[in-house]
Amino acid sequence: MHRVLLETAMLLRHLTTSAAPSAPLNVLFFGSDQFSAHSLRALAALQPARIVGDIQLVTRPAKRCGRYLQATRELPVVAAARELALPPPLRCDTRDDLLALCARAPRTDLLVAVSYGQLIPAELVRAVPHSLNVHPSLLPRYRGAAPIQHTLLNGDATTGVSVQTLHPTRFDEGAIVAQTPELSIAALLARGASSAFDPGVPPAVRALVDQLGLRGADLLARVVADHRYAGPPLAPPYAPSHAPKLPPSARRIDCSADSAERALAKLAALGPLYAFVPAQPRRQPAPDLRRVLFHALHPYDGPAFGPPGAFRYDPDSNCLLLQMADRPLRCSLLQFQGFKPEVPDKFMASYQKRCGRVKGFMFQ
Q1: What is the pLDDT of residues 60-88, one digit of tens each?
Q2: Which domain holds residue 351?
Q3: Do 64 and 153 share a domain, yes or no?
């Protein structure tokens, strides 16, 4: 929280030296998550200086959750809007919902879309004088829905944030108007997260969402304060690449192909990984595959001990050793399908009973 207050104070000092436009910009803001909440707060910080006028949040419907999906959970950007005393959000879930916003175009000066998850219709983009998007990568690198995950998967040493205009028909192909310098991922991870996240979000993803969100929010505010949304585009030196949303199958460990380093990168980017073991409990006529989740993996300095997929219990460290394509990893918490997470000694004590007539210690 202290870091957020410090960065806000620095931003306000910058604003006192920026000339405000003749009339404040009325903003239609599209967002959903913690990353977008930082940008919403930064735009609200421009209101006292009369750089930004009215802000109307547009977001998705509340998520259904809990048993039988009977409860609802609000998106993080909605909580931020309430803290800022902004008008109630508009809920848009379909293209028709978004097209209805064209009625607001005559009194809107700027569209801002940050981690909204849907393409803003071309009709709305063209009806409003200016548009901006904040993207957590150094574009044109990692265009797409999952730049943070691909950054971690690829083991990049640096990352950054870009501010671009909205392209009327394609994601992340607008004119790039501002970028941060290259930022050390290790330094960002060391700062950690400052927002509340769902328990299933990996710690490294939380840290990058928050830290890049704060820097993207600051960059967005400077672009708006300096009127760079109408300026000439940049030509960054980065090679174009794509970062599509990753399917659940990306979390599967392929012990014969994945190196130990690759498996650790998957865990950091995607959360608990999984593999299968063959099992044939009593009264089951044929074997099938049971999923095993790996909640905690760590480097291991010892030698290889078997073919890829082999595993054995190390009683000295109470860890399960898992042989990857190049070298082993240590696992300190895992979960057999249908059971709660367990430390390795508990897992091994029940392993043979759960697998029944199938013998051996190999993950598939």
Answers
A1: 987 766 555 656 778 999 999 999 999 99
A2: 248-355
A3: yes
